[in-house]
Automatic annotation (TrEMBL):
GO molecular function, one term: hydrolase activity, hydrolyzing O-glycosyl compounds
Record-given protein name: peptidoglycan lytic exotransglycosylase
Stretches the record annotates as Disordered: 1-25, 385-423
Listed GO CC annotations: outer membrane
EC class of the enzyme, as a word: lyase
Cross-referenced CDD domains: mlta_B, mltA_like_LT_A
Entry annotated with the keyword Lyase: yes
Enzyme Commission number(s): 4.2.2.n1
Organism expressing this protein natively: Sphingomonas aerophila
GO BP term (any one): peptidoglycan catabolic process
Length: 423
């Protein structure tokens, strides 16, 4: 990949670096309330120049949004990023690692225990017209779906939004998946295309974007437009709890196979996820929540209440493919909380296999503008002076494929078995 990241779907283990001791803060709603601890000096992190250059390019792309957006994590202000953004535009070839060390410091949020899943750009069979073998609608936004900003009605509800529809004189929740699939929006939502397989369309919604392979061999790209306002439920967690998936079946591929083998039960369990995604046609590769094209092996989804969108992240994970630098350019319906990430792998068979089976655990550090931690802690913590020409740090040697590392499970939603970039 352009990032220098190598992957083919196999699990090659590695030993994560340890987080600094820190007790998790119960009920934390932002990075600031979760607690902050200095991370390692960046010269200690095994970042090769190629990966650093890919991260620098994605960071530079994100800079306009990073400086313009309100950082809901409470960590930074737009102006904090100005020096790094200016330098990112002028860093010469071969100087990406030095750029990172000069302008960033590593910060641990909460206990630093990270959990990362994966997403990708799926490719599914579809047709622009309904025809035999293509019967599953891929909907655009319905004309009766309404977004409501509750902050316009009460300052106590600032930042909260809901979606629904008008029914007579009442505002009610929008139709759920079962209602939509049984015809509730047939007269209110345009159909962009017709899919050939219900499970494939379901996971197109889970991923949030994808390529539709049309009967003539051409492609149509679709991306997330909006969602029906219902809560997302990961069906893999339900299936595991009910004993429907055996060993080796808990990946996305295993779930799809089970649905194909049990079509009636599969339809019912997919409908337990009441969330439903609506798409728009794209004329570019997939874009993330910041509005920029996401890059395989570089971009990741994060919770903006804990990570400033556009910021670099370093993951030290129990899988080599997940370990390294990522840029937070996206969000996800299942990506909630501190140190919870969804890594993007691009398109194709290897990306599908890697993302579908990704469940990496380890330690995460945010890379924030130098001086951020001292400002937030009143000078209690300060990053060490940067080393501009550090000695090369060898990448940790590969370990044979191993069972999941003996780290305690992270504090994540049990429904996060399959992640989604949908906002």
């Amino acid at each position: 990949m352009p990032s220098g990241r190598s992957f083919d779907g196999r699990i090659v283990g590695s030993t994560p670096m340890a987080a600094a001791p820190a007790a998790p803060t119960a009920g934390a709603t932002t990075a600031v309330t979760a607690g902050l601890t200095p991370g390692p000096d960046l010269s200690r992190l095994p970042i090769d120049e190629r990966q650093a250059e890919a991260a620098r390019a994605a960071f530079r792309q994100s800079c306009p949004g990073l400086m313009r957006r309100t950082d809901t994590s409470g960590l930074t202000r737009g102006a904090d990023w100005a020096a790094a953004c200016s330098a990112a535009a002028s860093a010469g070839r071969g100087g990406a690692r030095d750029f990172l060390q000069r302008y960033f410091e590593a910060v641990q949020v909460g206990d630093g225990r990270a959990f990362a899943t994966g997403y990708y750009e799926p490719e599914i069979a579809a047709s622009r017209e309904r025809r035999s073998g293509y019967e599953v609608p891929i909907y655009a936004r319905p004309n009766d779906l309404i977004d409501v900003d509750l902050g316009l009605f009460s300052t106590s509800l600032k930042g909260r939004k809901i979606r629904g529809r008008v029914d007579g004189k009442n505002f009610v929740p929008y139709f759920d998946r079962t209602q939509i699939e049984t015809g509730a929006i047939a007269n209110n939502a345009p159909v962009l295309a017709w899919g050939a397989d219900a499970a494939a369309v379901f996971f197109l919604q889970v991923q949030g974007s994808g390529r539709l392979r049309l009967p003539d061999g051409s492609f149509m790209r679709v991306g997330y437009d909006t969602q029906n306002g219902r809560d997302y439920t990961g069906i893999g967690a339900l299936m595991k709890a009910r004993g429907l998936l055996g060993p080796g079946q808990t990946s996305m591929q295993g779930i799809v196979q089970w649905i194909h083998d049990h079509p009636v039960e599969g339809e019912a369990i997919m409908r337990e996820n009441r969330s439903f995604v609506f798409f728009r046609e794209l004329d570019t590769p997939p874009v993330g929540a910041m509005g920029y094209v996401v890059s395989g092996g570089v971009s990741a989804a994060a919770d903006p209440k804990f990570v400033p969108l556009g910021a670099p992240i370093y993951l030290s994970a129990d899988r080599q493919d997940a370990t390294g630098l990522w840029i937070a350019q996206d969000t996800g319906g299942a990506i909630k909380g501190a140190n919870r990430f969804d890594t993007y792998w691009g398109a194709g068979a290897e990306a599908t296999k890697t993302a579908g089976g990704m469940a990496a655990r380890g330690t995460a550090w945010l890379l924030l503008p130098r001086g951020t931690l001292a400002r937030l802690t009143g000078g209690s913590f300060a990053a060490p002076a940067p080393s501009y020409s550090p000695p090369a740090v060898p990448v940790q040697p590969a370990m044979p494929a191993v069972p999941r590392a003996t780290l305690p499970p992270p504090d994540v939603d049990p429904n996060d078995d399959i992640a989604s970039p949908q906002p």
